[in-house]
């Protein structure tokens, strides 16, 4: 095949040029994202029910929603959580479920449930979770002094949002911190009493003044006109002029008995930027868009906004493209230094400048053509796929070095140039194909991991397979062709022998080879002892998800656990921010968040603070100040203070507790009262726990209607309930609607302590006699459950374990539940992690089997593949040693480094064994050697032949990675564990390929090889 292609150089060159042109076009079309667009198999149904308690939301809404959704296709888990005014149902589906269809099905079922839900309940929101839901940036909108906050909110909603939505690549723009204008009608109770009027007279007057006649028309001859009442109100002045009629017939303007004015609606949440109140716009990217093009366009728009709207300040924060830019920069750095060091090493080991020139052409060609595979497999350019390309670049350089070295060696042995190109590529073809297949066998099965990990590995596996496949194409077609075209033009180097540097290295190798083979058994036993010792270092290493990045930002999630208002929450957050000595940036979402895509707990008593510092040292100091301040001034508050989550953290974070013990009351479908639960918890078999959401308590005021008094004074219960809802709730009289703009008209009661309001507010009996409301309402303070939690089996309560080995007491948990007539179950991330570990072990076992099968087919031996298998633990031990010495952890990036290192080690071992097998046949025919003399001669000669490519591949890879160790920034922090793993593994791996492989070959040939021969 290679001969056939080399005989048609123009056709091959034109084919590669065509591939490069198409690749360049495709590269412009590929979407560029931080993460691949993964369908997270979760949907959240969010319910907002004003003035409703957790018990009311659970009984009247969430229970019906759960029963209506329990028959969904592919539903794996269902969890609901009811709080004050807010309830959520989180649906988790089997991975692989088509989430677009599940989303439609959930919406259809919610529509069917509408009639069975309370009439005053807004339609539940259905939120589909996707990786594209993670905002790529946040735009801060801060009104300047003397600016109207409501006008800025209208500007943000009606202008800024729409202008950002028009940017190419933007899918959604979400806003928090909006302020809305309302018209308030505050009754003058003394004036109403003097005229014997009630609040109801005011309400009826406003409703009558804002009445419409929808769909009514009149006929006038041949014409038909639609009617519109001219009495509709538009402003507070219009409302104040409305006539109000008293029961005795007196008519007065509404402005005489009530104060009507524009007001800002009471805020349930705020957004802070530094010490200023404002709004925040989160920008979400389309899956097919390019992030590196979207962010510059967004920054350009902000420049326009600053010119067009000088009354507002703008800032761009939490730009997630920094991670992507770091990954792209790392790839460029790897290519640049990889190329430079590869050229330098080639100059030192091969005395011809044309070899590095061929490498300089082949490497970018391979990388560019790889993007064609991305296009056909619908893979985006992301951190995941770029890390896959980085994995393959090391193998790509290795393949090129091996082919070029073999062609050069054939040419120096006296073969003509054309034959040297053909035979040099053909000779290593089988070994290189096997090495690529073994690398894929180690890596690709990880795609079958369940959940998001498997989806992420899919993009990485395709990227690795793409660049390795293309590298083979380039190594066997383009490299020999370029070698032939370039070297046939120039003069052949008449100097003989190897470069001086390589001759010295060769001398050191031969002395080492001679020393080890004089002590074969001792050396082999020493190598075999190193295997368990090296692997044992893995138990010492700390295991983490991602490497420790030098993060200069942090977040504070706090729940005050006190019944405070949103404005008090805001004041406390401002106090915390002002208590810090220094920070670069601060922003906070206080209380209820208005984001459409927010699927967490919306509570007035909660806040999220984001802080950015100039250095990690400064961050640690200021966080300690913050922690001390909260503990001293707000002892009831619970908070989580730590590094700000990046996109990876947000994607892999789980709301599921690590280990949770749940129980349900088997006799009644409601939470067990706190008075009964507290003594039971004292007998719980584990003491290191925190209460789950269903056991958390908050202070409440409980109203009780005095039925006997209501009956005695002939006061309908409905009148009292209606008066309470007007007094303490949000009572909307009507709405003024103008072309999509809605202004509510709301009844505003006097603000004050509720005890005073009860004592001063009157309620009317059937005969219009009025009495004080407080005479018929009793109240008391009590601690009530903050949330009501439930799953598909019903209401449950839970404890979250904090013990090191929480599952050891599982039987004790079950026995505790049986003694209390409770149904007990255990849940949590602990069991998910166990399942992932089991899957990983099974998948790695399959990978080793695949590797063995491929090598057995390559070597046509059942024994020789064991040599390669035994080399892997030595490389892993070397990687573990360097990770331990540098203080690194075993994490995702160091694991990727292990795969890279193993791929190169396998490559070297396969090529060496392949060379030994060929030389055995050649030496037995040409030199007539046999037995131990043949074996030692072959092992010695194969070591000399393969010494140069093994050293070149290892040295080029190590030198290309070393600059990352001394770099700074997020990208370098992310890649450093990978670099340590590769350097440690290759340092040991090179020594292994040089000495351990021939030792194992000798041992297996002497002890097992003779028995294997038929």
TrEMBL record:
One of its GO terms (molecular function) is xenobiotic transmembrane transporter activity. InterPro entries: AcrB_DN_DC_subdom (IPR027463), Acrflvin-R (IPR001036). It comes from Algoriphagus boseongensis. This is Multidrug efflux pump subunit AcrB. The keyword Iron does not apply. SUPFAM superfamilies: Multidrug efflux transporter AcrB pore domain, PN1, PN2, PC1 and PC2 subdomains (SSF82693), Multidrug efflux transporter AcrB TolC docking domain, DN and DC subdomains (SSF82714), Multidrug efflux transporter AcrB transmembrane domain (SSF82866). GO terms for cellular component: plasma membrane. The chain crosses the membrane at residues 331-350, 357-377, 383-407, 428-449, 461-486, 522-541, 840-859, 866-886, 892-911, 950-972, 978-1004. Gene3D superfamilies: Multidrug efflux transporter AcrB pore domain, Multidrug efflux transporter AcrB pore domain like, Multidrug efflux transporter AcrB TolC docking domain, DN and DC subdomains, Multidrug efflux transporter AcrB transmembrane domain. Keywords: Membrane, Transmembrane, Transmembrane helix.
């Amino acid at each position: 095949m290679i001969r056939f292609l080399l005989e048609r150089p123009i056709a091959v060159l034109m084919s590669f040029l065509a591939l490069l042109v198409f690749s360049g076009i495709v590269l412009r079309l590929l979407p560029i994202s931080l993460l691949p667009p993964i369908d997270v198999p979760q949907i959240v149904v969010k319910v907002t029910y004003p003035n409703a308690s957790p018990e009311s939301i659970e009984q009247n809404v969430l229970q019906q929603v759960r029963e209506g959704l329990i028959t969904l296709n592919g539903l794996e888990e269902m969890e609901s959580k009811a709080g004050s005014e807010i309830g959520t149902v989180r649906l988790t589906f089997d991975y692989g479920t088509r989430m677009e269809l599940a989303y439609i099905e959930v919406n259809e079922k919610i529509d069917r449930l509408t009639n069975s839900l309370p009439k005053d309940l807004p339609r539940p929101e259905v939120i589909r979770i996707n990786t594209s839901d993670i905002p790529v940036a946040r735009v801060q909108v801060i009104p300047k002094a003397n600016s109207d906050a409501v006008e800025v909110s209208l500007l943000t909603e009606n202008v800024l949002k729409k202008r950002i939505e028009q940017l190419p690549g933007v899918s959604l723009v979400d806003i928090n911190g909006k302020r809305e204008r309302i018209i308030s009608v505050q009754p003058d109770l003394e004036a109403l009493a003097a005229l014997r009027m009630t609040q109801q007279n005011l309400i009826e007057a406003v409703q009558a003044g804002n009445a419409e006649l929808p769909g009514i028309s009149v006929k006038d001859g041949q014409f038909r006109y639609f009617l519109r009442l001219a009495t509709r109100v538009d402003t507070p002045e219009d409302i104040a002029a409305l006539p109000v009629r008293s029961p005795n017939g007196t008519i007065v303007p509404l402005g005489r008995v009530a104060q009507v004015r524009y007001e800002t609606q009471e805020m349930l949440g705020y957004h802070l930027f530094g010490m200023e109140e404002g709004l925040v716009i989160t920008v979400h990217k389309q899956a097919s868009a390019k992030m590196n093009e979207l962010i510059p366009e967004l920054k350009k728009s902000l420049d326009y906004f600053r010119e067009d709207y000088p009354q507002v300040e703008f800032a761009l924060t939490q730009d997630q493209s920094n991670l992507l830019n770091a990954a792209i920069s790392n790839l460029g750095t790897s290519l640049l230094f990889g190329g430079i060091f590869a050229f330098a090493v080639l100059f030192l080991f091969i005395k011809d400048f044309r070899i590095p020139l061929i490498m300089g052409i082949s490497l970018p060609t391979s990388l560019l053509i790889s993007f064609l595979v991305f296009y056909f497999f619908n893979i985006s350019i992301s951190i995941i796929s770029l890390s896959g390309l980085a994995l393959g670049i090391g193998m790509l350089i290795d393949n090129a070095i091996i082919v070029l070295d073999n062609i050069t060696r054939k040419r120096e042995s006296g073969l003509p140039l054309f034959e040297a190109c053909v035979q040099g590529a053909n000779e290593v073809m089988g070994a290189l194909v096997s090495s690529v297949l073994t690398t894929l066998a180690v890596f690709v099965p990880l795609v079958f991991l369940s959940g998001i990990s498997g989806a992420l590995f899919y993009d990485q596996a395709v990227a690795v397979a793409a660049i390795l496949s293309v590298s083979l194409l380039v190594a066997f077609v383009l490299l020999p062709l370029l070698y032939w075209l370039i070297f046939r033009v120039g003069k052949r180097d008449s100097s003989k022998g190897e470069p001086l540097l390589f001759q010295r290295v060769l001398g050191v190798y031969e002395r080492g080879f001679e020393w080890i083979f004089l002590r074969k058994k001792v050396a082999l036993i020493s190598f075999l002892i190193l295997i368990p010792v090296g692997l044992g270092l893995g138990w010492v290493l700390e295991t983490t998800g991602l490497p420790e990045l030098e993060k200069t930002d942090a977040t504070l999630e706090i729940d005050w656990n006190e019944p405070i208002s949103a404005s008090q929450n805001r004041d406390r957050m401002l106090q915390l921010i002002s208590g810090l000595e220094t920070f670069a940036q601060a922003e906070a979402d206080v209380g209820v968040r208005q984001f459409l895509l927010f699927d967490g707990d919306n509570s007035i008593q909660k806040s999220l603070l984001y802080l950015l510092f100039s250095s990690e040292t400064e961050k640690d100091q200021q966080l300690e100040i913050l922690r001390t301040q909260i503990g001293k001034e707000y002892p009831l508050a619970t908070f989580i203070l730590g590094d700000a989550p990046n996109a990876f953290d947000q994607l892999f974070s789980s709301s599921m507790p690590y280990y949770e013990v749940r129980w349900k009351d088997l006799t009644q479908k409601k939470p067990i009262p706190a008075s009964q639960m507290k003594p039971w918890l004292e007998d719980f078999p584990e003491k290191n726990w925190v209460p789950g959401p269903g056991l958390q308590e908050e202070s409440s005021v409980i109203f009780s209607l005095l039925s006997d008094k209501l009956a005695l004074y002939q006061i309908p219960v409905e009148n009292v309930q209606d008066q309470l809802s007007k007094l303490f709730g949000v009572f909307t009289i009507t709405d003024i609607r103008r072309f999509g703009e809605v202004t509510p008209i709301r009844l505003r009661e006097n603000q004050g302590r509720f005890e005073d309001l009860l004592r001063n507010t009157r309620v009317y009996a059937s005969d219009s006699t009025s009495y004080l409301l407080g005479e018929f309402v009793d109240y008391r303070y009590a601690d009530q459950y903050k949330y009501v939690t439930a799953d598909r089996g019903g209401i449950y309560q839970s404890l979250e374990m904090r013990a090191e080995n929480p599952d050891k007491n599982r039987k004790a948990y079950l026995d505790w539940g049986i003694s209390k007539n409770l149904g007990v179950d255990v849940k949590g991330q602990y069991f998910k992690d166990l399942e992932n570990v089991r899957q990983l072990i099974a998948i790695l076992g399959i990978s080793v089997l695949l590797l063995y099968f491929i090598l057995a087919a390559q070597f046509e031996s059942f024994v020789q593949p064991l040599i390669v298998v035994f080399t892997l633990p030595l490389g892993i031990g070397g990687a573990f040693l360097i990770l331990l010495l540098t203080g690194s952890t075993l994490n995702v990036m160091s694991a990727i480094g292990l795969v890279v290192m193993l791929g190169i080690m396998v490559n070297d071992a396969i090529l060496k064994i392949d060379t030994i097998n060929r030389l055995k046949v050649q030496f037995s025919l040409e030199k007539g050697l046999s037995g131990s003399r043949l074996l030692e001669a072959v092992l010695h000669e194969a070591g000399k032949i393969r010494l140069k490519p093994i050293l070149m591949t290892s040295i080029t890879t190590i030198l290309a990675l070393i600059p990352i160790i001394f770099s700074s920034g997020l990208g370098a922090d992310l890649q450093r564990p990978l670099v340590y793993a590769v350097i440690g593994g290759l340092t040991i791996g090179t020594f292994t390929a040089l000495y351990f492989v021939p030792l194992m070959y000798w041992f297996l040939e002497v002890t097992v090889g003779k028995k294997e021969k038929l």
